[in-house]
Amino acid sequence: MPVSPNPLPMKSEHNTIVRHSSMRLPETTVQITQEGHSIRLHNKRLHNRARTVKAWTQAFLLAPFLVLAGCGRPPNASTPSIAITRIPSAEGNKHDTVAAIEGTAVGVRPDQRIVVYTRSEELWWVQPAFYHPFTQIQNGSRWQNQVHLGTDYAALLVEPGYHPPETAESLPSKGDGVDAIAVVHDKRAPASSTQPKLLHFSGYDWTVRTAASNRAGTRNSFDPANAWTDERGALHLHIARREDKWTCAEVKLTRSLGYGTYRFVVRDTSQLEPSAVLTLLTWDGIGGEPNRGELDVEISRWGYLENENAHYVVQPYFIPANMIRFRVPGGVLTHSFQWKPGRVTFSTVAGSQARVIQQHAFTSGVPAPGGGDAVRMNLYVFNKGEVPLKNEMEVVIEKFEFFP
Question: Would you say 183 and 206 are in contact if contact means Cβ atoms under 8 Å apart?
Fold first, then answer.
């Protein structure tokens, strides 16, 4: 006899379910009333199918919310962090003394490293030395190194290929290869009472430097007393000897000027000894190396009698195309540079007839203003040459002009 497509179970005398064994059937249940003669059949497969459809419907409706909740959190991602757990004692706080610093690093990769800075004389110095700027992370979580003493200490977690500045007026900010920053102030260190000295020169306000510097790889101290203006308004920069130590001079414009023409009228510099350096420049104290936006006119023989005594530089100086050397005569000279996008033209002229001594245009590696760039003029000592400085030095800048 033919088999029904949907055969029903048969009720036996003992109220049991009898199923056909010749084909697979949907599972059913029977509910018997108290009178024993009313049967309700339930198809479990249909019931389960309905439940599945309902579950998928709910999942479909919830999917957009789950996607939004997961945005910005890639799997297995964690935010790296660092901390400084130990700093040196402030006792005997001298820049030539070193001691231990320690810290932790969490959520870091094996190729990341630490850069440590010490703040001393209002300047951040990479530690333990400019030729050894990186600290390794040990066992994936701890780091330690030696640092020179200071008033503040900073640790930066950096990416491979990051080039830390040797010195900085302000720390590099997070981003551009810096993933995390920790800073600790040593409350035991003596507080600085130094207030910035301001000069008014050529219609502009200038801050006189008090912080030490590492210009040209040589450490120099600066004394505000070494910069002043005379009764005619000229600016004097002086290298003085105090307590068997040279102190130098620098002034910095209090605002950024950006693109334009910068002009400096300088009195006779022929008396400068080989190790004295006069620099007329723009420099960005906020940016990190190599983003200092530095353009230089430098008057010096760098410690050697036979060297030419002037050059123009678009930093970094070690790229041959970024520097031109020449000689300047005695007398009043006007040094200038015209800064444009992708081009800077330097010029040096002599006397009232504006006799051209040198002129050169750079079109490669010319920086763009970064917002922290400012004009600086400094006179300092280069102490790595053959001929050490013997006498106090002074340079007079008669005028500074800027033309947008």
Answer: no
- Cα 346 from Cα 360, distance rounded (Å): 5
* Interstrand relation of 235-242 and 276-284 (parallel, antiparallel or unpaired): unpaired
Residues in contact with 190: Cβ distance below 8 Å, sequence separation at least 6, in sequence order? 90, 93, 151
Query: What is the four-CA torsion angle of 381, 385, 389, 394, rounded to 10 degrees?
Result: -40
Q: What are phi and psi of 66, to 5 degrees?
A: -65, -40
- C-beta separation of 17 from 28 below 8 A: yes
Query: Hey, what are 337's tokens?
Result: 């540079």
CA distances in angstroms from 21 to 3, 235, 248, 256, 359, listed in the order given: 11, 112, 106, 94, 106
Q: Do residues 135 and 162 touch, judged by C-beta distance below 8 A?
A: no
Taking the mean position of all CA atoms in its chain, how far away is CA 328? 37
Which residues are CB-neighbours of 57 under 8 A, at least 6 positions away? none
The separation between CA 292 and the C-alpha centre of its own chain, rounded to angstroms, equals 11
Give dist(CA 164, CA 115) in Å, integer.
7
Picking from 386, 383, 396, the residue whose alpha carbon sits closest to that of residue 276 is 383
Q: Are 25 and 41 in contact (CB under 8 A)?
A: no
Residue 158: name the closest of 138, 139, 136 by CA: 136
User: Rounded to whole angstroms, how far apart are CA atoms 143 and 116?
Assistant: 10
pTM over 0.90? The answer is: no
Which helix (H) or strand (E) segment holds residue 222: the answer is: strand 221-222
3-state helix, strand, coil split of the chain in percent (to 5) is 10, 45, 45
User: Which is it for the CA torsion 363, 365, 367, 368, positive or negative?
Assistant: positive
- The distance of Cα 51 from the centroid of its chain, to the nearest Å, equals 58
Contact between 220 and 95 under an 8 Å Cβ cutoff? The reply is no
Walking along the chain (404 residues) 10 residues at a time, the average pLDDT comes out as 38 35 35 38 42 48 44 55 89 69 94 94 85 91 92 95 86 91 87 77 96 80 96 98 92 95 97 97 69 88 96 92 96 97 97 90 92 92 94 98 97
Distance of alpha carbon 8 from alpha carbon 25, whole angstroms: 9
d(CA 163, CA 375) in angstroms, rounded, equals: 24
